[in-house]
Design a protein that fits this description.
single chain, mainly alpha, 2 domains, 10 helices, 67% helix, rod-shaped, coiled coil, Transglycosylase-like protein with SLT domain, TAT_signal
Length: 328
């Protein structure tokens, strides 16, 4: 926004003062002539008159020295002119900076006018600098105009700065709220996924299955009491009823021990030390089912079924766990 302070009267005053200054050489010459005549008169005066004049000159010299001292002290501090110009320059800088900051931020500060017109202030400062050499009575009006325009520019710049700060704070608040919302949604989704996975695992482990996703591989032609894989499967099948299990559990048992040992009663895992059809670890655990645990498939099967019953409840429960973890 532009200030409506008019500089025309001040400019006219400065021009009139400049015209008067151009006539000063004539006045100075006249003053010098008067000085010469006074000097001549002094040289022809009486001794008493000369003494009085000498005293007057001495007083004039002291007064001149005192005036020079005051001027020197005044020069050590900024003049009113310098302060006025410095304040105006600072106002222009503040206005330019806030306009650039708003443009860089790309934020909506709530007003379409995001710049401050400083052209009138800059013109007034130039006028004041031009009038600097004039007597104070000719520069007062221009100085007042610069001061008024400086205050106006500062007010507008501060207003825009306040709007920009508010827009930045609002943006930060919205970003924080959005971040919190996304984090809450992610946490809720993770919890829901965890609960769904737990429910699926529980359902899978509790559901009886005849096989592990495919038909179990049964050995054929076996006889109870033999040592071949087919014989071992026949022996195991005959024992299921003793644990309260139906034939639907047999497929899971076949799949489980196919994976563990291939129903080989002499199967030995060199890396872990597990032994036998159920891969007991260590194999000596099966001694609780019989001293012949190393050579009798029936003893190994009896121990293995007891282990499954106590730990997983059923062969299908054990097979489900094995599929999930790789062991049972």
């Amino acid at each position: 926004m532009r200030s409506h302070t008019s500089l025309l009267p001040a400019r006219r005053t400065v021009r009139r003062a400049e015209r008067r200054l151009r006539r000063r050489p004539v006045l100075v010459a006249a003053t010098l002539a008067v000085g010469v005549l006074a000097t001549a008169a002094f040289s022809t005066a009486t001794p008493a008159s000369q003494a009085e004049a000498s005293g007057a000159l001495t007083n004039f010299a002291l007064a001149s020295y005192s005036t020079a001292s005051v001027k020197a002290e005044a020069a050590a501090t900024p003049s009113a002119f310098e302060k006025t110009v410095a304040d105006a320059d600072a106002a222009v800088t503040a206005a330019t900076t806030v306009a650039a900051d708003i443009a860089t931020s790309g934020l909506d500060v709530g007003t379409p006018d995001t710049t401050v017109d400083t052209s009138e202030l800059e013109g007034a400062v130039a006028q004041l600098k031009r009038a600097q050499s004039l007597p104070a009575e000719y520069t007062t009006e221009v100085t007042d105009a610069v001061t008024t325009l400086t205050a106006s520019v500062n007010e507008q710049a501060q207003g825009l700065r306040g709007k920009l700060d508010a827009a930045i704070a609002l943006k930060a608040q919205r970003e924080a709220e959005e971040k919190a919302r996304k984090e809450a949604e992610a946490a809720a989704a993770a919890k829901a996924a965890e609960e769904a996975a737990a429910a699926a695992a529980a359902k899978k482990s509790s559901a009886p299955r005849s096989s592990g996703g495919g038909a179990p591989v049964f050995a054929t032609g076996g006889a109870v009491g033999g040592t071949s894989p087919a014989d071992a499967q026949a022996t195991a099948r005959s024992m299921l009823g003793g644990y309260g299990w139906g034939d639907d559990q047999f497929g899971c048992l076949v799949s489980l021990w196919n994976k563990e040992s291939g129903w080989n009663y002499q199967a030995y895992n060199r890396s872990s030390g597990a032994y036998g059809i159920p891969q007991a670890l260590p194999g000596s655990k099966m001694g609780s089912a019989g001293a012949d645990w190393q050579t009798n498939p029936a003893t190994q099967i009896a121990w293995g079924l007891g282990y499954i019953s106590g730990r997983y409840g059923s062969p299908c429960g054990a097979w489900s766990h094995s599929q999930s973890t790789g062991w049972y």
